[in-house]
Design a protein that fits this description.
heterodimer, A: alpha/beta, Rossmann fold, disordered C terminus, B: alpha/beta, 8-stranded mixed beta sheet, 4-stranded antiparallel beta sheet, 12 helices, 32% helix, 21% strand, globular
């Protein structure tokens, strides 16, 4: 394996949900890569398929959902079709996970110390005392004061922000190469959110951990991510370096998404408005799924599905994005 | 301009004590939660006051106090010159108070929980009309409901549907139509867009602004999202542990925040234009409201706190920025106003 090979490669991933009324496709031909130590932000609105893509990578798609096509490779090794026992070893050891609600990610009946020690001993061959010492070191690293005392407390004795720090410590236990973080700050207040984002950034820099950061909060993405993928109706519609995608988006959906976010700097009379709503999975429009809401749609958009193509500094799946696009004023 | 809503030293305390027997046997003391502790502000007619703060700061309790879902433990709430709660309220005829109450409405955060799933949309929107004393004839109600739906951008045919047939943004439109049914002058919006996706949030915020322009509405807009408040509000109040620590016209509050907590909150907001930059470190967490710190409740997190801050509660005073701020450090000139630049 060469040094330049991506840490994670997702190739034409397809995720389906069979239902009585036919098969719903939640994720269509999604391909992306994450390099070592890179933070990839995945944004989109509810139902865009961003969380389920993250769940597929950690092997936690709830049945009846299933990976119906494509490959997921970690350091060149396929992990999408591993037997459950082997996937459990990958999950935690090589890929860590952080979810939105820190309370449901922790077992309320065990002290956080026990949960940390158990996780460490599952993945690393260490003794009890060594694992406990490592757990305390981890808690200190994520900024929990008086870690050696608080390690014997239960999750309910921690505040929301502190709990999310514990969850981060849990995800880091086995020094994974990749962390999938699904809305890690959404349940937190802004001042706490800022602390957690800073912590996540510092930890990844120190440990060289790559992150797939799934969120709907563009502000969080802007500060954290190296690259950004925008998802719409189960597909990536634009992907590229964070600064380019945020300041010079090329896909009409990305342009609308950026414009619809109220900003403290600017003062606008009206926000950019994308009329309509994300289509339901059982009624995805033909051609480009965004065409019914797109102000610039042409006849071709209604018939043909655009592929991701270079557009400026990013790649966008839009028939019109290849040509120089005037920025929406 | 005259104030439509005026709160004077309003407080609300909740008794969150353990049950009597536990207290008697376990020797536990009574526990009182000061959710709102001496809040005063005015909202002029036609304006939007934004109220921001983190979870548990009492902003939703203020909303509930104004619309009468809670009674204040202390202080006066006046609406359009009528005392709704407080010392003067008993001398106001009940009919006048009812009339005032009817001209205020509320929009809630979760459009999935605030609409009855078993009712058709037309019935949901018609309910406030039917609850009025002078009930219009049936045909007029149907006409009015269709008009209300059109006003919020829904089709007349949507009235026959049930809430589950709508997306989150459309449900919030239904909530707005219901709130407008009694032709209110004042609407309390408690996190109306927090449960919505950004593109849908933009639709709802634009709609609310259009309605304000067209109908001359006055809003109290509560949110934890500073960017949203910046967009909608004319003036902004910042709450911390049940008190207003700063209240100022929106442009000056965001350009030159005076209170250290406001500064910290603004620094914590992720900004689209700050790609890749680190922001100022934010430290600490909101203390337990059951056991608030002495003096200024922000002092344990405040880099400028001194002995006076630890012992004496600061009062809201006029600040050089055109607003009011409750901070000893600002009062004494220990903390210079932040220059309106960089942002």
């Amino acid at each position: 394996m060469t040094a330049s090979a991506p840490l994670l490669a997702v190739d034409r991933l397809r995720i389906e949900f069979p239902t009585r009324r036919g098969t719903l496709v939640a994720v269509h031909d999604v391909s992306f890569e994450i390099a070592r130590g890179e933070v990839l932000g995945v944004v989109g609105e509810s139902g865009a398929g961003k969380s389920i893509t993250g769940a597929a990578i950690i092997g936690l798609i709830d049945p009846p959902g299933r990976i119906a096509g494509g490959e997921i490779r970690l350091e060149g090794r396929r992990i999408d079709a591993l037997p459950p026992a082997e996937m459990r070893r990958v999950r935690g050891r090589e890929i860590g996970a952080v979810f939105q609600d820190p309370l449901t990610s922790l077992n309320p009946l065990y002290t956080i110390g026990r949960q940390l020690v158990e996780t460490i001993r599952t993945h690393l061959s260490t003794g009890e005392a060594e694992a406990r010492a490592r757990a305390i070191a981890l808690l200190e690293e994520v900024g929990i004061p008086a870690a050696s005392r608080r390690i014997d407390q239960y999750p309910h004795q921690f505040s929301g922000g502190m709990r999310q720090r514990v969850v981060l410590a849990l995800a880091l236990c086995a020094q994974p190469k990749l962390i999938v973080a699904d809305e890690p700050t959404t349940a937190l207040d802004v001042s706490i959110q800022a602390q957690i984002i800073q912590l996540l950034k510092r930890l990844c820099r120190d440990h060289g951990t790559a992150v797939m950061l799934v969120t709907h909060d563009m502000g969080v993405i802007a500060e954290t991510a190296d690259r950004v993928a925008v998802m719409y109706a189960g597909r990536i519609v634009e992907i590229g370096p964070a600064a380019d995608l945020i300041h010079r988006p090329r896909h009409p959906y990305s342009i609308g998404l950026m414009g619809s976010i109220p900003s403290i700097g600017g003062s606008v009379e009206r926000l950019v408005q994308i009329d309509g709503a994300m289509p339901r999975l059982d009624a995805v429009p033909s051609g480009c799924a965004f065409h019914p809401r797109c102000p610039r749609a042409i006849e071709r958009c209604r018939r043909e599905l655009p592929e991701l193509r270079p557009a400026g500094a990013t790649r966008a799946a839009c028939w019109l994005a290849g040509s120089p696009v005037e920025q929406a004023a | 301009m005259s104030a439509l809503v005026r709160l004077t030293d309003v407080a609300r305390t909740f008794d969150v004590s353990a049950p009597w027997l536990d207290r008697a046997l376990g020797g536990k003391a009574r526990a009182l939660l000061r959710a709102v502790d001496g809040v005063s502000f005015e909202i002029p007619r036609g304006e939007t006051l934004g109220l921001v703060g983190e979870s548990g700061c009492g902003k939703s309790t203020v909303a509930r106090l104004i619309v009468g879902l809670h009674a204040p433990s202390r202080g006066t709430i006046e609406y359009d010159g009528v005392a709704l709660a407080g010392p003067g309220a008993d001398s106001v005829p009940a009919g006048r108070r009812r009339q005032a109450r009817r001209s205020m409405q509320m929009i809630f955060q979760d459009p999935y929980a605030s609409l009855n799933p078993r009712w058709r949309v037309s019935d949901i929107v018609a309910e406030p009309i039917l609850a009025q004393d002078a009930r219009p004839p049936g045909a007029a109600i149907g006409e009015r409901v269709r008009g209300l739906l059109a006003q919020v951008g829904l089709a007349a045919a949507d009235g026959a549907k049930y809430p589950h047939q709508f997306s989150g943004g459309q449900r919030q439109r239904i909530s707005i139509a219901r709130a407008l049914a009694t032709e209110p002058a004042f609407i309390v919006c408690d996190e109306p867009t927090s449960a919505l996706d950004v593109s849908v949030q933009a639709q709802v915020l634009n709609l609310m602004r259009d309605l304000q322009r067209r109908l001359g509405l006055t809003y109290l807009f509560i949110s934890h999202n500073l960017a949203v408040v910046h967009h909608v509000a004319d003036r902004v109040g910042v709450m911390y542990l049940g008190r207003i620590v700063e209240i100022a016209p929106t442009p000056s509050l965001f350009a030159a925040p005076a209170h250290p907590y406001t500064r910290m909150l603004l620094d914590a907001v992720p900004d689209l234009r700050m790609t890749g930059t680190a922001r100022t470190a934010v430290t600490g967490e909101v203390p337990n409201p059951l056991d608030p710190p002495s003096g200024c409740s922000f002092h344990p997190r405040c880099p400028f706190a001194d002995a006076r801050c630890r012992s004496e509660i600061p009062m809201l005073r006029d600040a050089s920025t055109g607003g009011k701020v409750a901070c000893h450090a600002v009062d004494e000139g220990r903390l210079a106003p932040r220059t309106p630049a960089v942002r």
